[in-house]
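Sample A.
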Amino acid sequence: MSAPELQQEGIAISLSEPWWKHVRDAIRGVPHDYTEGSIGRSLMLLAVPMVLETLMESLFAVVDVFFVGKLRNSFHDVIYSKDIRPETH
C-alpha cells in the first residue's frame, strides 16, 4: 500500500505533535482508545512501557549479579575460615 492509501484508511502516523508528548502520555498512563486515531500513536503508547520495563529488568539483572558475586566471596570466606571448619578425625 502506498502512503496516500494508508492515510485514506486512517493509518497515517501523526507528525503534528512532537514525539516526546506521546512518550510523556505513555509514561503517565493517559487513557487512549487504541481502535481509533493514529496507529503510530497507539504503537508508541504501547511500546514505551514495554521498553521501560525491559530497561528496568536489565538493570535489576546487573545489580543482582553484582551483589550475588559479592555474596559468593563472603560465603566462601565464612565456610573456609579456621573458626568454623569441621574437625577431621
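Sample B.
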Amino acid sequence: MTCGEVQRTKSASRRVKSRQTLVFALLCSILLIAQADLAGQALSNSQFPSDSEIHQILMQRVDALHQSVGIVVGVIEPNGRRVIAHGTLDKGDNRVVDGNTRLLQTSS
C-alpha cells in the first residue's frame, strides 16, 4: 500500500466516523426531544391539590404540628393562580395571613 492509498484510507475512515458521530448525535437529540415532550404532557395532565386539600395541610402544619404560626401557599397553573392561607402573622398577633402578607421566609 502506498502513502497515497494510506492517506485516502485514513480520510475515508474519518469521514465514516464523522458520519457515525453525526447520526448518533441526531438520534440522541430526537430521543431528548421526545422525552421532553412526554414530560411536558405529563406535567400538563397533572393536577394540583384542591384549595381544600391544601388548606387541610396548612391547618395540620400550623395548628397540630406547630411548624409555623401562619403559612401562605401560591399555586400557579396553566389556567390561573390561586392563593391559600392559614394562620396568623405572629404569636400574639391576631392579624391573619393572606396573599398580600409580607413573608420573612419563602420556599419552593
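B remarks: The longest strand covers residues 80-90. The chain has two helices and three strands.
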